Amino acid sequence: xxxxxxxxxxxxxxxxxxxxxxxxxxxxxxxxxxxxxxxxxxxxxxxxxxxxxxxxxxxxxxxxxxxxxxxxxxxxxxxxxxxxxxxxxxxxxxxxxxxxxxxxxxxxxxxxxxxxxxxxxxxxxxxxxxxxxxxxxxxxxxxxxxxxxxxxxxxxxxxxxxxxxxxxxxxxxxxxxxxxxxxxxxxx
Length: 188
Ligand code: ZN
Fold this sequence. Notes:
mainly alpha
């Protein structure tokens, strides 16, 4: 392996360790108790599948770390470089958004992602795809109205991100169709 390739592999492995530690004890919504780390792992896998470069895949692994732990963007920059830090920052909601009604938060996200880099938009589409797959895996964890609002918000965010990877957008559209089907007749 070249030195550069070895460096990339080491950075990727370190990203998984940092994310696993940051999300320790956190689980995904629902009774299944799925460890939180399954989500960034799925997002990273989707980004890699869609042709994302190493920085983008590393950032996908770390995309929820700043929002969900004490880790800062500055620490990410020091450990993984400025591009990874920029991407993680783009994926992090400002704390004041957490106070907003969910649909309003999604509108802000859509606005914000419309101006983001192609790499950030790629991670966001993969993120929303993973979230919809989670809904489809365990629809009973969701109150139907909340699920409907979530799907609508995710659709808007992804519409703002389109134009980076046709394959990834198709994967999102498929996840949306399956989530709607699994939620069944409860949705209009
Ligand atoms: Zn996420």
